[in-house]
Specification:
Number of domains: 1
CATH topology: ABC transporter involved in vitamin B12 uptake, BtuC
Shape: globular
Strand content: under 5%
CATH architecture: Orthogonal Bundle
Helix content: over 70%
Low-confidence stretches: none
Largest sheet: none
Radius of gyration: 21 Å
CATH superfamily: ABC transporter involved in vitamin B12 uptake, BtuC
Structural class: mainly alpha
Length: 351
């Protein structure tokens, strides 16, 4: 009888896994394309999409202006923010080896919001060169997110405790401290700033304009592209820091890249859209259920799924209560909060 080698036995399994991973990325890629098409055409002003794309003369001046100056920057911003939040959630979960590490829950979004709100309220008193104007808000939000992410990791390393309860308690404390700062800035804000801050803290893409959106999208894209190549090292990190170091991973360098990349992605996104919660929690878990746990699939698929989710959520925010507009953060929280509760129960029952 001919012996079957282990390599031969593994080949069908490897092929099935590769097909599953490719199908996962393809599914979310198609979902994103469909979401972009529908969101670009539907809204308070209905726009024939193909006519708009190919410059059909039947478009009215209003439709043309809404499509190029309002709808497209808004849809693109929603896609970039969703991708940034989802990828950040995936890498933070890998870094902390904690399934509940999500930018909003652990305070990263609140830190970014505090930096951005402080910039909004105090910018009138700052002498900033005009060339830096479009970058000031994203940079302030990135600084806040970077401070929180660094503090979280240092706490986790020092205490050697990456448990769910510890992470949630630290996140609650950071969110509370950030709320104090946000409350203070809200208190000293003038009436014009106060109206924008109140709506901004609930999450919205309504302020998307090309001059402010393009710099933020450039920062988010750079951050996402810096995180995608870390997939294999994140897989090795799941074996433990000591084992990953033994296999050739520079854990301190990996930590710095993840902290800076995630803070940049979250900070730039929060600066443009406000706090949009649970995207970084829900999306990576959905992708894992469909495509597996390997980060080389998890990271790009999370970017595509997160982008599609926020584009659809923004579309819902625009059409559910027309002609008014619902904050996007309310819709993502309505989806994410039940998922969060289910995830906690699932973690408890598996222990």
């Amino acid at each position: 009888m001919n012996a079957v080698s282990p390599t031969t036995e593994r080949e069908p399994h490897v092929a099935r896994r590769a097909n599953r991973q490719f199908s996962t990325v393809l599914i979310f890629g198609v979902a994103l394309v469909l979401a972009l098409i529908v969101a670009s055409a539907i809204g308070a002003v209905r726009i024939p999409l193909f006519a708009a794309l190919f410059g059909d003369a039947t478009l009215t001046p209003l439709q043309s202006m809404v499509f190029t100056e309002v709808r497209i920057p808004r849809v693109l911003l929603a896609a970039f923010v969703g991708a940034a939040l989802a990828v950040s959630g995936a890498v933070l979960q890998g870094l902390f080896r904690n399934p509940l590490a999500e930018p909003q829950l652990i305070g990263v979004s609140s830190g970014a919001a505090l930096g951005a709100i402080g910039c909004i309220v105090l910018s009138e008193n700052l002498a900033v060169p005009e060339v830096l104007g479009p970058y000031l808000l994203p940079l302030a939000a990135i600084a806040g997110a970077l401070a929180v992410t660094t503090a979280l990791y240092l706490f986790a390393v020092r205490k050697r405790d990456r448990g769910v309860a510890t992470m949630l308690l630290v996140g609650i404390a950071i969110n509370a401290l950030a709320a104090v700062g946000i409350g203070f800035f809200t208190w000293i804000a003038n009436d014009g700033q106060l109206r924008s801050l109140t709506y901004w803290t609930l999450g919205s893409f309504g302020s998307a304009r090309w001059d402010t959106t393009l710099p933020a999208m450039a920062l988010m894209l750079a951050a996402i592209l810096s995180l995608l190549p870390l997939a294999r090292r994140l897989d090795l990190l799941q074996l433990g820091a000591v084992e990953a170091q033994r296999l050739g991973v520079s854990v301190p360098k990996l930590r710095r890249r993840i902290v800076f990349g995630a803070a940049t992605a979250v900070g730039a996104g929060v600066a443009m859209s406000g706090i949009i919660g649970f995207v970084g929690l829900v999306v990576p878990h959905v992708v894992r259920m469909i495509g597996g746990v390997h980060h080389r699939v998890l990271l790009p698929a999370s970017a595509l799924c997160g982008a599609a989710l926020t584009v659809v959520a923004d579309l819902g925010a625009r059409v559910i209560v027309q002609p008014a507009e619902m904050p996007v953060g309310l819709l993502t929280s309505a989806i994410g909060a039940p998922f969060f509760l289910w995830l906690i129960l699932r973690i408890r029952t598996t222990r």
